[in-house]
Amino acid sequence: MTDNFINRAIYNAWLCQIHGSKIEPVFADILIADGIIQQILPKNFENWLKNPQDQKPGWDAQGRIVTLPLINFHEHFYSRLAKGLPQLGPLDNFENVLKNLWWKLDWALDLEMVQASTQMGAWESIRHGVTYIFDHHASPNATCGSLRIIRDVLEKYGLRGVLCVETSDRNGDKLRDQALQENRSLIQKNEKNFKGMLGLHASFTISDETLTCAAKIIKETNSAIHIHLCEDKIDRLASVEKFGLPPTQRLERAGLLNERSIMAHGVHLIEPDYQAIKKSGAALAYNPDSNLNNSVGLPNFLQVPLSIPILVGTDGMNADIAGSLKQLFLLYRQSGASFEQAFNWIQKIYFDQLNFIKKYFDDFPSLQVGERADFIVWDYVPPTPLTSDNFWGHYRYGILEYPVCCVVQNGQFLMKNFVLIINNESDMKREIARHGRRLFEKLAE
C-alpha cells in the first residue's frame, strides 16, 4: 500500500451506502486512491466510543456521517450578484418581479459578470455539500460563450454540471437563435463531467416556432429540455391567451417531454398536466424557498402522482439543498400528510434524484468499493444507534440540521474542516465585488 493511498483515507466514519432502495450505514475506514474507493473496512462503533485512539495518516471523521453529495436540479448562477440592487420598479406580483428585476438584471450581465456570479455560486454550492449542479443560465446580451465560462469555473473547483442557457422570444429572433446554438454546442460536446440540456424560459415567452426549433434540436441530439413550468398562474393564462393551449400541452404537442427533461416549479399544475408528465417520464423540480419568496403559491403535493420523479432545486436563491429538503418535508406535513407519508415522500425524492442523475452521469456512485469517491461529511455524530431502519429519522432531524464540514469529489477534498480548498480566495472575492459594483451601477443608470 503506497503512502499516497494511506494519505487519502477517511477514518472512523458512518458511511451511508446505497443498497437498492435502502440506506445501509456502516461504521468504517474508507481507503481511497486515484479518485476511487479502494477499500471499506468495517469496525465496531461501540469499541471506538470506548477507545477512540486510532491515529493514522489521513483524516479522522470522529464518528461523523458520510453521505452522497447533494444535487441541485434547478440553479440560476446568474442571480448571485443580485444582492442589495436598486429597485427598478414595483415587485407586487410575479410578472413585475420578472420585468423589474430578473429581466433587467440578466440583460445587464456581461461575460465577466457571468464568471463572477458562477464563482460565487460554486463556492456556495461546495459549502452546502452540492457538487452536481443543473444550471439554467440567462444573459441575453452575453449568450455566446456563456456556457463555456460557467463550465470552466465549475471545472476549476472540481464540480460537475448539466448546463443550459435560457431560450425565449422576449428578446427577438437573433438572441433566441444565439441561445439555441449555445445549447446545441454544449449538448454535442457531451463531456465526462459536463453535459448539456436545451434551456427554455417558460411557455408564455416562447412561440410555437421556437418550440418547433427546440424539438428539432432535441431529436437530432437525443437530448432534453430544462424549462420553468407553471411557476405562476401567468404561465397558464398567457399561454392559453397567446397560443391557444396550456403550457404542458404545448410541450407535449411539440414532442418536448421525455424521461430526461426537467420541469422546474410545477406550482400551478392540474390533473391533465400530471398525466402528460407521467406519461413522458419527465421530472418535476421543486424550489420551495423561491416559491415562498415570490408568493406564487405552492403545489398541491398530495395530488402529484407518486410515479412522477421529484427533484429538488433552489432557483438561484441559495445553494442550500438540505434546507430545501427540510422545507419540503414540513410543507408536505402541513398539506395534511401523516408523519409516515412525509417520511416516505422524502425517501422517494432522495431515490428519485439518484435515479435521475444517472441519466446524465452513469458513474454517480452509491458509496461502494470500486466507485468514484464523491461524498460529503456532515458535522453530525449520531447520538443514538444508527441503522437502516432509523436512518431517515437521523436524516431529517439530525443530519439535515447540521452543516457540511468536508466535501470530497473524485477523491479530492474540495472543502476540509469547513475551509474551502481554493487559491487566492481573498483576491477572487474582491474581483466578485468589483463586478457586482459594476452591475449595481449599470442598473442604477
Give an overview in words.
With 445 residues, this protein is of the alpha/beta class. The protein has two domains: 113 residues, Urease, subunit C, domain 1 (Roll); 288 residues, Metal-dependent hydrolases (TIM Barrel). Helices cover 40% and strands 22% of the residues. Strand 8, helix 6 and strand 9 form a beta-alpha-beta unit. The N terminus is likely disordered.
Distinctive features:
445 residues, Urease, subunit C, domain 1, disordered N terminus, single chain, alpha/beta, 40% helix, 15 helices, globular, TIM Barrel
Per CATH, the superfamily of the largest domain is Metal-dependent hydrolases
Q: In CATH's first tier, which class of the largest domain applies? A: Alpha Beta
Please give the alpha-carbon distance between the first and last residues.
63 Å
Outline:
globular
Helix content: 40-55%
Question: What is the mean pLDDT?
Answer: 95
Largest sheet: 9 strands, mixed
Number of domains: 2
